[in-house]
Amino acid sequence: MKMFKKLMAVALAGVLALTVLTGCGSSVDRKEFVRYLNDNVKFLAGSGMMELSDAGKEQAGKVIALVQEAYNKTADDEKADFDPMDALQNSRDEVTDYPDNLNPMYKSVEKALGLTKDTKDTYLFSIVTVDKNTSEYNQKYATSQLAQKAMARENLVPLVNGDGFGNKGTVSFDTVTLGDTEYLVVVVKIIA
Predict the structure, then answer these.
(1) DSSP letter string, 45-71
(2) For residues 51 and 27, what is the distance between their CA atoms, to the nearest angstrom?
(3) What angle do CA 188, 189, 192 make, to 5 degrees?
């Protein structure tokens, strides 16, 4: 009986540890994130319905590499105030003679993603902080809250204004931790 109690205590401790780690983890549930986006992308397609599919992490990873490079170049005493969107943005004096369909403020992102003036599809991207939720309620709805934050008009930046919106698209996303802050990077492609 003592052996049974010890085994149960070890098993219970393992389950509790797993629960704590799962609850506090900030990894994004990929399927749920894409489902939430599909429920809420109607504004991108105007009156039509659009369906986004998961494109994996590759495109988001290219943006993450740029963010990490900018963060590593930031002075240590300025890293607490690091803003990845500001770090990737070109200064206004760098923006001259740029194609109308591209966003001149994010040249490095466009280059990393291989976007040119001949790109027909529409591309948007977003980088938002991943909140560290401690309440049970916020943990339950963390993925939908994060998707809503990433797709908010004030956070979603157009890179290429393509040849119109089709009804299909892809989303590439991944997280990166810089210092004490975790960020979600999202790249949306709307197929023309």
Answers:
(1) STTS--EEEE--SHHHHHHHHHHHHHH
(2) 23
(3) 150
Using one digit for the tens of pLDDT, what is the confidence trace for 97-150? 667 777 778 888 999 999 988 888 889 999 999 988 788 888 788 888 888 888
In terms of Cα–Cα distance, which of 30, 56, 52 is closest to 41?
Answer: 52
> What does the chain come to in residues?
192
As beta bridge partners, residue 54 has: 171
Lookup result for tokens 């930046």: 157
Angle formed at CA 176 by CA 91 and CA 45, multiple of 5 degrees: 70
Q: Give the closest residue to 178 by CA, choosing from 57, 85, 107.
A: 85
> What tens digit of pLDDT does each residue of 2-61 get?
333 333 333 333 332 322 333 333 468 889 889 888 877 665 555 456 788 899 999 999
pLDDT at 180 over 70: yes
User: What pTM was estimated for this model as a whole?
Assistant: 0.78
Structure tokens at 21: 């780690």
Structure confidence at residue 38 (pLDDT)? 82
Apex 121 CA angle, 186 and 171, nearest 5: 25
